[in-house]
From TrEMBL:
One of its GO terms (cellular component) is cytosolic large ribosomal subunit. Binds directly to 23S rRNA. The L1 stalk is quite mobile in the ribosome, and is involved in E site tRNA release. One of its GO terms (molecular function) is rRNA binding. GO terms for biological process: regulation of translation; translation. The keyword Repeat does not apply. PROSITE patterns: RIBOSOMAL_L1 (PS01199). Part of the 50S ribosomal subunit. CDD domains: Ribosomal_L1. Signal peptide: none annotated. This is Large ribosomal subunit protein uL1. Keywords: Repressor, Ribonucleoprotein, Ribosomal protein, RNA-binding, rRNA-binding, Translation regulation, tRNA-binding. Belongs to the universal ribosomal protein uL1 family.
Length: 232
């Protein structure tokens, strides 16, 4: 196991990992302790009372973070003719059909979101084993299979993120950057938690949102008092 640097040790002991904090206090601690030489991401982890192995306990969806993500999201679009031009005009980074398929099959996956028009799904379906494990497969429930490609591209570029519960019942997501104001991080926190609550599956039994923790890319985790988050 790699040894912690003096700085990492100092960060690890600066925050009581067992103490529950209010949301604003937690975000303030995250910003204070994000001392890396780069603009650290602010991340959230939510433990849910679900078992995603059961179809009626899957939690998945999209949410637009009102203050954005702080990241430049590259978007690939499968479309032809007018729809292809609409996607380009909306800011898509890569647009194509068979040529895009071949590029992806060759290992060129330099994008974070894939959008497709409905008529292209026969083609895109051939990439299931490539895009699926990476969480990039277009899905009509997530708005990434749509005839409105321009709208979907703008949403992806404008702070929309996808979320999906992992096997252990945990959802991870980025809420922005440590350079964001505390107010903007709080807006994104509230929007994300609200989306998770609204996505509560029918099969969830007992307490749904069990734990919430915040952290920066290189900083220690900070536990949030779930009781303070009224919507959960």
């Amino acid at each position: 196991m790699a040894k912690l640097t003096k700085k990492a040790k100092a960060l690890a002991t600066a925050i009581d990992r067992e103490k529950l904090h209010g949301v604003d206090e937690a975000l303030g601690l995250i910003k204070t302790h994000a001392t890396a030489k780069f603009d650290e991401s602010v991340e959230i982890a939510i433990n849910l009372g679900v078992d995603p192995r059961h179809a009626d306990q899957m939690v998945r969806g999209v949410v637009t973070l009102p203050a954005g993500t702080g990241k430049d999201v590259r978007v690939a679009v499968f479309a032809r003719n007018d729809k292809a031009q609409q996607a380009l005009d909306a800011g898509a980074d890569i647009v194509g059909a068979e040529d895009l398929l071949e590029s992806i099959q060759a290992g060129n996956i330099d994008f974070q979101r894939v959008i497709a028009t409905p008529d292209m799904m026969g083609l895109v379906g051939r990439l299931g084993k490539v895009l699926g494990p990476k969480g990039l497969m277009p899905n009509p429930k997530l708005g990434t299979v749509t005839p409105n490609v321009a709208e979907a591209v703008k949403a992806a570029k404008g702070g929309q993120i996808e979320f999906r519960v992992e096997k252990a019942g945990i959802i991870h997501a980025g809420l922005g950057k440590s350079s964001f104001s505390a107010e903007d991080l709080r807006k994104n926190f509230d929007a994300f938690v609200d989306a998770i609550v609204k996505a509560k599956p029918s099969g969830s039994k007992g307490k749904y949102v069990r734990k919430i923790a915040l952290s920066s890319s290189m900083g220690p985790g900070v536990k949030v008092d779930v009781a303070e988050v009224a919507s959960v």
